[in-house]
Amino acid sequence: MHKKIKRAVGTVLLTATLAATACGSSEEPSAGGDVSVWVTSGTDGVLKSSQERWNAESDSKIDIQFFETDPYKSKLRTAISAGEGPTVFHNWGGGGLKQYVDAGEVESLQAAFDADPEAKDRIFPSVLEGATIDGEIYGTPYNGVQPVVIYYNKSVFEQAGIAVPTTWDELLDAVSVFNEQGIAPFSIGGASRWPYLMWLAYLTDRIGGPEVFQRIEAGEAGAWEDPAVVQAATMIQDLVDAGGFVDGFASVDANQGAAEALVYTGKAAMQLQGAWAYSGTYLTGAPEFVNGGELGWATFPAVDGGVGDPSNVSGNLSAFFSISSKASEADRKGATDWLMNDVMSDTYVDELIDSGAVPPISGIEDKIAASPAPEWNQFVYETAERAKNFQLSWDQALDAAQGDALLNNLEKVFLKTTTPEEFAAAMEKAAQEG
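Above: the chain sequence. Below: its structure as tokens.
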């Protein structure tokens, strides 16, 4: 048997889960099996440490495979459809997870959380909500809260003699100044398309409030053609016209760190990107730049006349681990045991913080303050905790078909091959056909 590991979220009683998965069988559960785990890159070091720690102390053995984000999505869908999926799989919650749940592919973790209420209570409610489908919990977070923020090069701003914009009008003024100095205002990995989503999500929220996307997510007729969506797309094209993005932005690969490199080398002033970029790219790609205090960060600007609260954030609530319902009972036991006893353990939380991530766990303010990057971590922690609304990234909140349609049509907005009205109409059609 594995040694009991002290956790930040309490100690789970796995018998409740096993009873549920064994359909009331009175037989003694088998020993933990071999657990395959598929995950996207970004928390590699922490997860490898967890794997080594767990495999040394437990009967079950964890085997983690890492993938890049874009190929992972299609690989997972294909594997699960073929009945060859992993025991544990990474997901972003929301509509993507719901599809797998509706198809009967995901094991509920509700019994495990019910057996240990402290585990549920310690996780940020807004985060756990992302993996809650029809009132049941189907995933548990394994990395930090990941709001999308503006990263910026402090030296570039100092040389330009301007302040970081807090309103959209100030942002447009900054764009003009940087263009005059031959510096790209914003870096963006357009070749990967998903970074485009961040602009649409924030502008729609700032203009019309979170209710606009909530209606889209609920599938209400006409929701995509809300004036806030059209105005957000219009403002994106205004920014493109103003030279807001680096030349050739449509060919920059977001998965290779190229967009971040433009910022830390001073070729671009800013980047709108998720919190994952701090530890995943900035800290690893340019540690002297980060540790030397040259990297700055800020929340997305307010839009004059908009009704959205400036504290609202968009991004990934966290990433989640879910368990395949098709795995053997032994593998499901081993997976649940690992997720509830090592993931987000005290050691795990400490290593996440050391990596630059901010665990979605309440009551760790002292750990955040004592972390190697207290200013960054406190910013992310407070941004997530204080947000009036934390909206999951749109492509993850929606089902896969609508998410793909969104990426395709939003790319046309940025490339200016469609109008804002045509974009809204195309998305409305995709939503109704879905």
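The radius of gyration is 22 Å.
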